[in-house]
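[Automated response] Your request has been received and processed.

Submitted sequence:
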Amino acid sequence: MTSGDAVTAAAETSTAVVAAAIARKLTVATAESLTAGMVAATLANTPGASGMLQGGVVAYQNSVKAGVLGVSEQLLADVGSVDGAVAEAMADGARRACGASIGVSTTGVAGPDPHDGKAVGTVFVGIAADAGTEAFEYSFEGDRQSVREQACEAALARLLAALGGIGYRS
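Generated structure:
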C-alpha cells in the first residue's frame, strides 16, 4: 500500500467508524505511540466525530505509557514497548482514562532503525472493550511516514471491526 493509498483508506474507514460508533451509541478513545495522534486526528477530521470521540493520549515515551495509561513498568522492562501485551494495556488505559466504550492503541517501529529488538515496520494495534482486549500484529513496509500511515489505517480497520460487533457487545 502506498502512502497516499493508506491516507485515503484511513479517511474512508474513519467515516465508517464514526457512523458505526454513533449508530451503536459507543464512544472511542485512542492511545498512540508510533502514530503520535494520527488515529485521533483522522477520526476528528470526520464530520460527526464529536458524537463518539472521547479523547486520546499520545504516549511516545514509556514514562507516559506507564504514568498516564497504567501500562506496567515491569511489562515494559520485560518485553519493551513494541509488544502485543503493551498494545492491549495501552488500549485498556485509554478506555479507562477517557471513559470510553472502546479503546484503540498503536505501538511499533516506524524506523529508520529497529527498536526493542523489533524490525522496522513491526506494529501492534490493541482494542479494548467490555468483552475483552486483543492485540493484532502487523509487518508493514516502506519509509517512516508510510509505516505510520499504514498503522493508522490498520487501527481504524480494527476499530471498525470492533464496532461491528465482532467479539464485542454494546
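Summary generated for your ticket: The CA atoms of residues 71 and 89 lie 5 Å apart. The longest strand covers residues 122-129.
If you did not submit this request, please reply to this message.
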